[in-house]
Amino acid sequence: MHSTQNFPQEALPELLETYREFVKKELFPIDLQVVSGPFRSFLPQLETLRSRAKIIGLFAPHLSKEEGGVGLNLVQFAQVSEILGQSPIGHYVFNCNAPDIGNMELLHLFGSEEQKEKWLKPLQKGEIRSCFAMTEPAHAGSNPVHLSTTAVRKGDNYHINGHKWFTTAADGAAFTIVMAVTNPYAESPYHRASMIIVPLDNPGYHLVRNIPIMGEAGEDYLSHGEVKFENCIVPAGNLIGLEGQGFALAQERLGPGRIHHCMRWIGICERVFDLMCKRALSRELDLGKPLAEKQTIQNWIAESRAEIKASRLMVLDTAQKMQQFGAKAVREDISTIKFFVADVLMKVIDRAIQVHGALGITDDTLLSFWYRHERGARIYDGPDEVHKSALAKSILKNYASDGK
Amino acid sequence: MHSTQNFPQEALPELLETYREFVKKELFPIDLQVVSGPFRSFLPQLETLRSRAKIIGLFAPHLSKEEGGVGLNLVQFAQVSEILGQSPIGHYVFNCNAPDIGNMELLHLFGSEEQKEKWLKPLQKGEIRSCFAMTEPAHAGSNPVHLSTTAVRKGDNYHINGHKWFTTAADGAAFTIVMAVTNPYAESPYHRASMIIVPLDNPGYHLVRNIPIMGEAGEDYLSHGEVKFENCIVPAGNLIGLEGQGFALAQERLGPGRIHHCMRWIGICERVFDLMCKRALSRELDLGKPLAEKQTIQNWIAESRAEIKASRLMVLDTAQKMQQFGAKAVREDISTIKFFVADVLMKVIDRAIQVHGALGITDDTLLSFWYRHERGARIYDGPDEVHKSALAKSILKNYASDGK
Amino acid sequence: MHSTQNFPQEALPELLETYREFVKKELFPIDLQVVSGPFRSFLPQLETLRSRAKIIGLFAPHLSKEEGGVGLNLVQFAQVSEILGQSPIGHYVFNCNAPDIGNMELLHLFGSEEQKEKWLKPLQKGEIRSCFAMTEPAHAGSNPVHLSTTAVRKGDNYHINGHKWFTTAADGAAFTIVMAVTNPYAESPYHRASMIIVPLDNPGYHLVRNIPIMGEAGEDYLSHGEVKFENCIVPAGNLIGLEGQGFALAQERLGPGRIHHCMRWIGICERVFDLMCKRALSRELDLGKPLAEKQTIQNWIAESRAEIKASRLMVLDTAQKMQQFGAKAVREDISTIKFFVADVLMKVIDRAIQVHGALGITDDTLLSFWYRHERGARIYDGPDEVHKSALAKSILKNYASDGK
Amino acid sequence: MHSTQNFPQEALPELLETYREFVKKELFPIDLQVVSGPFRSFLPQLETLRSRAKIIGLFAPHLSKEEGGVGLNLVQFAQVSEILGQSPIGHYVFNCNAPDIGNMELLHLFGSEEQKEKWLKPLQKGEIRSCFAMTEPAHAGSNPVHLSTTAVRKGDNYHINGHKWFTTAADGAAFTIVMAVTNPYAESPYHRASMIIVPLDNPGYHLVRNIPIMGEAGEDYLSHGEVKFENCIVPAGNLIGLEGQGFALAQERLGPGRIHHCMRWIGICERVFDLMCKRALSRELDLGKPLAEKQTIQNWIAESRAEIKASRLMVLDTAQKMQQFGAKAVREDISTIKFFVADVLMKVIDRAIQVHGALGITDDTLLSFWYRHERGARIYDGPDEVHKSALAKSILKNYASDGK
């Protein structure tokens, strides 16, 4: 997804079709079972799928060929991301899942050579997993400048102390990137924090628990950790970029990250839409009278189709502009897609559940998994409210300055 | 809740306050833990609470004093039900939880003396639990006349065969009431089924599984069973009422049942509203700037308060009319509250989650439990769509017949 | 509607039925024509109807018998108000229309004997009309303390200067009550303004225009004036109450006023609902296939019925409490019904228009009149946003002070 | 807008900017006044603007250069249409307003040489206006096959009888195209009607009235006629295409017509959005505290921006596909944009009114005009309900046939 990458555009349709086939044939038959867990018991099977993905050249679509990937640019990857998003294990199998993909981007852009060698390369190959420790239970995530976690430089080391949660996939990860305050007296709160790599076998690091979320604590990749750093000592060389650059780097990380999330959500929408239509056609109220004949069901199908289409066009438009003009130029667009698509996602899932009736609330379909685990979509990476306010303020600021 | 019951109205406020105190002091501190399970490990503790409830005269509010209860009528009980609904273990502790309460009503009204002696009495005392097997996976629950389960009379027995699910609390129950086709050739499909009592130690009965619902299979009272009847033989005396009366009895059971559900949902709304307000006041975005200052949050609080108030007034109005004029007279009202309150419930829960941010999707509050386990509220006992159509058709029919 | 009034409760059902018949037989056949105007041309016809109302004892339902009215209390009047609201000329014919009813209440409670003799009595008899000049184009009505209109005491007179608009029914009125700043240096902005009576033949008063609103300027009672006071001199005896009491009196005026509006809106909802059902039954898509068979239409009918019912119960509950405990005790309830019912009103009208198709946007039914002229319901007497914030802040304040 | 047209793409941005300037400088200052009427009094002024548009090469953007137009293709014209839509007189001034533009397309594609000479050419030059008589008061427009208007061939003439309404801009038009049943016994109801040109000076044609719509009957171009054909005799040569082709031709006419409407609506949205933002910035609640600081207002601005963006991308995407693959290929897309954009339009207008407070419901801004006159957007050219059902059925049909 580096701006210089450019998988030949004319070959894209065929590539997309290949991904589509793989996901449909290899992942759809097993994904419900995998997410029903225990996740670890499926690791060998997932490893086999990753190997197959490598062999047929689909692995790590976002990485350059040199890095062992497919070499897609942002817009191309967005289209793959929608396809992978149709399965809850899609991004994982192709090694482009959050939070690893964000960490790969970060280390690729800002990591030292040593960091790249030690952490980035095995990550790109899918040999290890990583996580990202930012959110703290003591502070509202919607105002990220408030952090209590500190990293104090003592000699050649940082001494890190703090309490984080929603450290996605911490369980089983090899390292985390932690956001910690290094410069508490910097004038701007945006210049106080830094990103530091912490290997998770460090004795000062503790995984307190996999947080039970919406009925499941999960494990391994499918989990969100509550973690503590208690006098956790790491070499100063684990600092990414410079001290005080934490939020600047986080912005770089989040921009494309929101594109990825949005396209993944659209993938979910498509799978859910498909389940909804099939159920509407197959479930009969009376002999030969399927649910599909009910106008309310038709309304939901039509509205869902319209909203999904709107979502896709907006996200691809944003990806196109970001690729062309950079992340800063599309801040309004990013906020727009974040709250718009998250809302569509939850509405489509909700309608599909209603169409499924009792079956819809069981764990016998993927609907329940997504209803539960994507409720966070309206919260993480900035809740709806924050993005709406940010967008409006930005629009209004332009007005004021225009003298309009 | 029998129409003749009438706890002295002037003593009601104090009684309600006593329930309120009990729920707040005894249940609130433990209920999140109890529903996080395993449920069975809490049975002794819950038994202790039941004993205390009996001692202070709060047990079985719906039953007459002779039956060991408090002697409330429908409207009085509705008000208690709201209070108990604030805790997910409220109705259970006071032995007025679904599906037992419905079965008690049914057996009280239509059970034979023998059935009352054997099943109703221990149920009323809380010595056993029961369940109700109606919904079948093969048929849309929204059109209940389609049933494949059959009960064939052979000599003095019924031979029952069929496949049911969403048999709430089957795990650990002593008996189920099963809805089965006894008269397949009756002209009206509403006259084909009967209700029959099946003791669950019957060798022809099998609990296939506790259905995993929204992330949890649960156990004991907190579960929904998938069950099979395979040549399950019970004495003909286990028939409730007459052959072919199944749906007629079900209607009797459902009327007050929907009042109970709606008042329970309002109780949930109140607890959730309380959590939302407290979170809004305590969560700070910046020092001294709680979420509560945000107008969006204020909108949610105001809209929730309005909708909850509307819900309560409508349900109590319906209860009042049902008590006075009977269940038939309030069929439109019942449909109205069913879809209106279920919708309010889900909206209020959703807003509270959003106000809680990341915490809202964890299992560290009750929000996640209700978000998951009450999604069914818009589906069971008739999905929204069915009730809306039924209400509209009834209204329009009156128009047509009025010659208006 | 004075708290001491009490029309015999047992006679109420019959009285309501009499109003219902009158409205249906006398007003429904002509009201569309009357509001299509020109309004003045219908004044003789309306006068005849008022005479008839007086003769059969229905005139001025809110006034005591001594004042020539029916003697209803607030809750009783609310029920009449719903009935009258079904016709856009209902309240006018029975002389209980805004803004006259508010002015009658005000003068009854706070007017001097002289003011009562001169202004209140002819108002009560329906001999004159009045208006109320508060809102100013230069200030947001949602924060009423900002007023530029001043009334300066010079000797025995007030010299009034200012610019007002939305002075409802100014055209043809005999006097207005104007809200003007008399005490600009009072510490609290709530103590700066006063209410003063201005006869509209005063040379310092000018009706600039009847404001064109939603396509119509209207005239006479059916209009909203933009007015100017230019060195308008009135005797000091025209002050109502004391100097600086303006907002305190306005609150007294607004409390029951919002009940009246809400019940009138519910009346509109019922008429609109009736039109919607009839259209659904009579409009055929294909031979013998009326719109009423479409599930979307059924949904709208059901949702409208539910929302109207919720509205009525909430407003009557508020009226009951206000009657019993006073206006202050129900401030939260008043805010609640204001935004809840205004929203329901607009939704019901919108659905009915959609059911009517092209006919719905013509002026051939009352739908267009209400769609246009009730859009203001979400704005006047405090826009939705203000009431929601006010309600939420009040709720949250109780929390904070409870130490909850 | 003919598929072969192709204004040089590289010159488009400058052309769009020229339109933008023209609309802003020439139309914005007068449009509110013009639509406030009487419209005829503004005809000379509008004629001057048309002349200027011709001189600077902006007139008739949809026509080829040979026809005196700019030569835009569908996608290019769509972008111009959004700009013109920002003013309610935009399309009129540039002679690309409905229903004339539809009639031009129709005659261009299917008119005889004689018809083109006599009717099309003066229409293209803006010398005459036309109208289109299809909808009948006696039949639901949402099922257009039901028509009572007949055209009976007698010798060389058609004798037309029937009753139509919503014949837009009939007042002052030179001719109408009428949809009438010529082949009542054709098997398919879609093959029964034909399109016939009727000059409006025909003695058998009567303009019954300009229908009062949302408070205004309007006149001339700004009106919707109710018309009657009473033994109206026209030459057989006035038939467009063949007998029985009426609906086939109507489909051709409607496809691009819906694109035009949708882009016009987006133009309205942009103007309304602009008014909303300016009002939010300029209206102060307290000194220095503009409405814009309120989070509710910010939410509306953000949501409106998102929805407008989604609308534009979807309509342009549909236009692109229609241009490339023809109208049939985009039937689902057309239904999608029709209901989606109409809904967005009404929501954006409604929010802007609320932000404007009392001013929003006056006719002192364009908001009232659009609130009233665009309510029809959800009804004409197929109500929301019909498009949603059509879209859903089409989607589900593909499922069924896919054997998916």
UniProtKB/TrEMBL annotation, chains A, B, C, D:
Please give a single GO biological process term from the UniProt record.
fatty acid beta-oxidation using acyl-CoA dehydrogenase
Q: Which residues form the Acyl-CoA oxidase/dehydrogenase middle domain?
A: 131-232
Q: Does the keyword Ribosomal protein apply?
A: no
Task: Name the cofactor(s).
Answer: FAD
The segment(s) forming the Acyl-CoA dehydrogenase/oxidase C-terminal domain are: 244-396
InterPro entries for this protein: Acyl-CoA_dehydrogenase (IPR050741), Acyl-CoA_Oxase/DH_mid-dom (IPR006091), Acyl-CoA_Oxase/DH_mid-dom_sf (IPR046373), AcylCo_DH-like_C (IPR036250), AcylCo_DH/oxidase_C (IPR009075), AcylCoA_DH/ox_N (IPR013786), AcylCoA_DH/ox_N_sf (IPR037069), AcylCoA_DH/oxidase_NM_dom_sf (IPR009100)
Provide one Gene Ontology cellular component: cytoplasm
Keywords in alphabetical order? FAD, Flavoprotein, Oxidoreductase
Tell me which Pfam families the record gives: Acyl-CoA_dh_1 (PF00441), Acyl-CoA_dh_M (PF02770), Acyl-CoA_dh_N (PF02771)
Q: Show where the Acyl-CoA dehydrogenase/oxidase N-terminal domain sits.
A: 14-127
- Extract one GO molecular function annotation from the record: flavin adenine dinucleotide binding
Would the keyword Transmembrane be found if you checked this record's keyword annotation?
no
The subunit structure is:
Homodimer.
**Family assignment from sequence similarity:** Belongs to the acyl-CoA dehydrogenase family.
What name goes with this protein?
Answer: Acyl-CoA dehydrogenase
The scientific name of the source species is Algoriphagus lacus
